[in-house]
Amino acid sequence: MKKSILFCLLFSLISCKSTVEKPEKLIEKDKMVDILYDLSLLEAIKSQNINGGISNESANDYLYKKYKIDSIQLVQNNKYYAADVEEYKKMFEEVKSRLAKQTQEPGANPAPTNGPPNADTPQIQ
Questions:
Q1: Where are the transmembrane segments (predicted)?
Q2: What is the pTM of this model?
């Protein structure tokens, strides 16, 4: 999680120096918040190293398949949203709120599922 926060802060600092153009394939704000939320969960899994953790490759592949995006689209959109620091901060406050809500619910699973896991879901190694 520290890496993702550091990653986002780096983009925030870079974006303050220049104007960022709207990406050709803009990800809607709500969807971007969902992506940031999932990134936070995946970073937590990696940092806890539960049963060997999860590889960066499988975490990234999971995000790209789930949201039907690629790495370039993710980076361009992250940079675009980070250009507006106040709005980006609000997005992360929403992520933080969702994470807090999930951890406060007894027996809550931070990543709700709609059935059995499928082949695209990253598995803890």
A1: none
A2: 0.69
